[in-house]
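Lesson 9: reading folded outputs for more than one chain in a single document. The general rule is that every protein is listed as its sequence immediately followed by its structure tokens, and records are never interleaved. Here is the first one.
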Amino acid sequence: MNTRRVLTSLTSLAACALTAVFATAAGPALPTQPALSARQVDRPAVGTVVRTHDGAVRGTAHDGYRTFEGLPYAAPPEGRLRWAPPRPARPWTGTRDATRPASACPQAAGEVPGGSTDEDCLHLNVTAPDAATPRHPRPVIVWLHGGGFTTGAGSSYDAHRMATRGDAVVVTVNYRLGALGFLAHAGLPGSGTFGLADQQAALRWVRDGIGAFGGDPRNVTLAGESAGGYSVCAQLASPAAAGLFQRAIIQSGPCTGRPDRPFAPSAASLPTARETGARFAAKAGCSSARHVLACLRGKSVSRVLAAQATDQQPAYGTPLLPHDPATAVAAGRFPHVPVLIGGNHDEGNGWAAGIIQAGNPVTPETWPDVAATFFPGRDRASAIVHEYPVTPSNGGPVFGAVIGDADFACPTLRTGDLLGAQVPVWRYEFADEHAPPLTPGTPPFPLGAPHASELPYLYDLGGRPRTMTPAQHHLADTMIDYWTRFARTGDPNATGTPHWPSDAVQSLAPNHTGPTQTTTHHHCAFWNGLP
């Protein structure tokens, strides 16, 4: 086998595997829906009517909770509003139907089943327990989905268990993705941060309107996973988001992510983001146009999706995000709110499995070249090979451990240390080694608790609960209790749950929920010392 030739495709395979994991974690996307009319007033009532600051909406009543889907929080970002900061949604008269989700933001059909080309996508969904009323408001959790900033939808997360067991109002959000959300170009206001600006517009909508649904606008927790977790980091670092949330939950999206690591989300400097934007414009056929932005705004959504890079990053050095979140966190330049942060025990195994299944084995013979591909530099690769020895039978798990330790576990611990110097921090590691699989088929080795595997314990993905053992159901209940207690008080400890000390990492597993040692297991002394 020509190892060098095989490895030439590894970087692109990593990006594809990243997208696949995120896409599956978010659940299958719902089919694109026809645009909802603002004047759907003649239908029989099928749920609860709530009057918002934009107009009345009719949701759906369930057993113990209500849902309101497809609520616009900003105007459709199309036409001249493509690549513009979000504008307020247009109010409506009559009662708007809110019994079904709106379209996901544009994303390629090959990445999420039933992908979307509908730019009228800036909608959110509210799930509220029946006990939540304007006179008796409940804490609010605003959820930002993952997906590498290119895929995903808020409607893929059914939050009824979080709402009913945790007695909280949950808001799931769509935001612009891909080049439509993060294009950077000289002279373009909002460059590189349109998706983050959307998230802030949703938070302002929550501040101004969630009270009508029984949510407490003075007790808002911003939460997210992967790219959504990193978005929480970006909002912590954004002066414009100050005061819009009172607590933060970061799942598998450490604030200290680095652009040279291909698996974890991170931000790019504005000059780098503009270079990416220039390549995008050239691929879209607009680089030689006299007015590049006018040319790009004239392209179809399908053409935009075909021209964009597989991965996207927010840009820092911008008005919305002045500093890299890692720099802001290290300097203490963020709102001093309590943070719950963590990751999964085997974050990298899903990517390692995908790359191996694509025909790239990890053996003692290929391991040095694999390491050098993802961690360029002879000395660095040699150090990794020495620290993580590969035998004929353990190549997959070792490769997965390197990805997970370098890109997630150790950066998460580092982020927790930086945040903990300023604010109360609660750390966890999800460690169910038999977590329900997120993808079909048989992997080349047991995946343990890979990236996104904690999500079914908090949400029903794609509206479908995963099959779990009684012990796993108990763990799911415990996690929801922790998450919602933190949202309510800033401390996850609740009556009936194992004690979570603030000075330790809490392992979350069916057979053990309690403090654990993660620094040694994930070789963090090695990674922290690696140039």
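And here is the second record, again sequence then tokens.
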Amino acid sequence: MPHSQNPAPVEGWWRSAVIYQVYIRSFTDGNGDGVGDLAGLRERLPYLAELGVDALWLNPWYPSPMADGGYDVADYRDIDPAFGTLAEAHAMIEEAHHLGLRIVIDIVPNHTSDQHPWFRQAVADESGSAARERYLFRDGRGEGGELPPNNWRSVFGGPAWSRITAPDGTPGQWYLHLFAPEQPDLNWESPEVRAEFESILRFWFDRGVDGIRIDVAHALVKAPGLPDLGRWDMELIGSAANADHPHWDRDGVHEIFRGWRAIADSYAEPRVFVAEAWTGAPERLARYVRPDELHTAFNFDYLTAPWLADHLRRAIDTSLAALNSVQAPATWVLSNHDVARHVSRYGRPQPAQPERALADLGSDQPFDLELGTRRARAAALLTLALPGGAYLYQGEELGLWEVEDLPEELLQDPIWRRSGHTDRGRDGCRVPLPWSGNNPPFGYSPPDGQAHPWLPQPAAWRNLTVQIQGGDEQSMLQLYRKALHIRRSHPALGDGALTWDSETDDEVLSFTREPTLRCVVNLSPHPVALPDHHRVILSSAPLDIGKLPSDTAVWLTW
């Protein structure tokens, strides 16, 4: 019997939305200083509206020393001067709304910048002060406190603790940073911290922001006493190996998010949250999107699945089952600012285990750009046909690949330094976009710009500019435009259910969305027969008569 996933009977624009991720530094440079900004984004809003997305998610735009690309926030109520001003942000929100685009911004609640006034005061004050209670300061172990308080490790490499120097010049306490030393973790047991972030939410909601993406939502609460990691958790840094991990995915986070949901629901047009939560299982992720908590959460099981039919089917089924159990929609994503672009992931031999980072690709693995692009086109139609919402990372609509040969002296990701120069980090997926022209900066900066882009663009991207692809009906950009406009108008697409079609090849994904839409994806190395009496709506590659070629997807109707 065909297997059906039941839809959740709850309404809301976010249940079906396609949200476009804007990494501001790399989107468009409006003032010519080599760094993307709000002026550049405002200039390109019509492009995004024409593309057919429903909303934009902006990576952090707050004042920041940029130790981690803006995820080290020094002031949560202002805009970094490199990006613009608070007035420009307000104008951008109004212009986006006028074009029918909603705005989702990033918030970073697990940690601040070490340049945040709170942390600077904490370092200046003595042990036990109210300022230090906002963070996780602890005495060191060993006779002179020379050892870290526990064995926790930073996601970016090295220990998760750094020691400060006391005002009198002697070695002081240690502070926790699950990421870079410039990103001290906040203490979410502090009522002052909780009240501050509730105030920050209201600050941005009052200014017209439609939603907020929560960075590392699974990390806020730590176990009492900060116990050492066990062996299995030491080997799995990014997420929890069990349900009682001392700093990932602890049950206490849910009380915080229930309070945040009440704030979002208090507005005449309720605001929306999306969680970045790396959990050990879909059932754990579903806990974040229960009816009284957050609205959606990124689906990392789908993102990390290799281009293999059984892996993708399993990720889809387990995600839908877990999320349907709490009446939450799935959100599907192929790439973002933290993972290697999927053209480069799919263009290599597919592993049996999940992959996400450039380091996971393997420098010894051959990269087939044509194959990666073909699979990425098929993956786009698969993703946009699945029930729920979707996130697109800027440049995926152009078919951009991971830039793997950036000069070492230009790498800015703290992973590069913290790993001892063994992991090149995430800069390769953050290279500025190509818009027009035959030479860098490809319209990213104005013609009279005084600086080079903050990361160099490959010369080969001249064939992938928006200008070039806009005039080519077979381009990746045109495929995305067509798919997004069909998705917006077709009653079968968006939130709802799917029914897997029976009696298909094991290497073929085929499902039906009612009314009258069928998605078929051929992941096998050989062509497969298309079903009889169907008409093609859209295909990711040219079709043979009655056949679906390898690594090709098609939307059909009847």
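What the second record shows: The radius of gyration is 23 Å.
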